[in-house]
Amino acid sequence: MMITALLTLLGYLFGSVSSAIIVCRLMRLPDPRTQGSGNPGATNVLRVGGKKPAAITLLGDLLKGTIPVLIAWAVQPEPMTLAWVGAAAYLGHLYPVFFGFKGGKGVATGLGVLLGWSPLVLLLVAATWLLMAAIFRISSLAALTAFLLAPLYLWWLTGEEALVGAMIIITVITYWRHRSNIVKILNGTESRIGQKS
């Protein structure tokens, strides 16, 4: 139990490292919290800084979801522990202790968690995102669709109830964090991929 608690704390601390803010500071770009959508995530960094900083941000957000899960695999590879650690990393991105508990919407970090849980599930989720993004050119719509299907993919490929349960929670929170995007999608005013704010 103590090991699970320590690994969960580690996951949260990893998640709390804001790749978007750090990348923008290092590359002398505007703070993503004050530009574009105001969201410290890869999509907004793409708007305010271009492809290179956005790609670095995306990689950083992915890794901070994956690394603590991989550590958990090495130390205590029980499904419930993996579920707790992954969820903690995701929540760390949303509510980072290092940045005033104001973080991003969690998509990239959620994908990183999935990579740690099951690379095959991540491939299916990423394929879903890419397909939706290619058709509609709306990042939030692609993410929402991919995350909606993620618990089903996990159940199909792993059958681990703890992971499926954690992913359902992550999906519900993702939808809540994207509630303003959902309204814009329904109104036809949501920004498209690569569109300048």
Set down the secondary structure blueprint.
Layout: H1 2-15, H2 19-26, H3 42-49, H4 51-75, H5 79-94, H6 107-117, H7 119-136, H8 139-157, H9 161-177, H10 179-187
Helix pairs in contact: 1-4, 1-5, 2-4, 3-4, 4-5, 4-6, 5-6, 5-9, 6-7, 7-8, 8-9
Describe the structure.
This protein is mostly helical and 197 residues long. The chain has one domain (2-187). Helix content is 74%, strand content 0%. Helix 1 (2-15) runs antiparallel to helix 4, helix 5 runs parallel beside helix 9 (161-177) and helix 7 (119-136) packs antiparallel against helix 8. The mean pLDDT is 93.
SSE order:
HHHHHHHHHH
Q: What's the average pLDDT? A: 93
Task: Provide the number of structural domains.
Answer: 1
- Total helical segments: 10
Instruction: Give the biggest sheet.
Output: none
Secondary structural class? mainly alpha
End-to-end separation in angstroms reads 47 Å
3D shape: globular
According to DSSP, the number of beta strands is 0
Low-confidence stretches: none
- The fraction of residues in strands falls at under 5%
Task: Classify the helix fraction into a percent range.
Answer: over 70%
CA radius of gyration is 16 Å
Question: What labels would you give this structure?
Answer:
0% strand; globular; mainly alpha; 197 residues
Short description:
The chain is mainly α and 197 residues long. The protein has one domain (2-187).
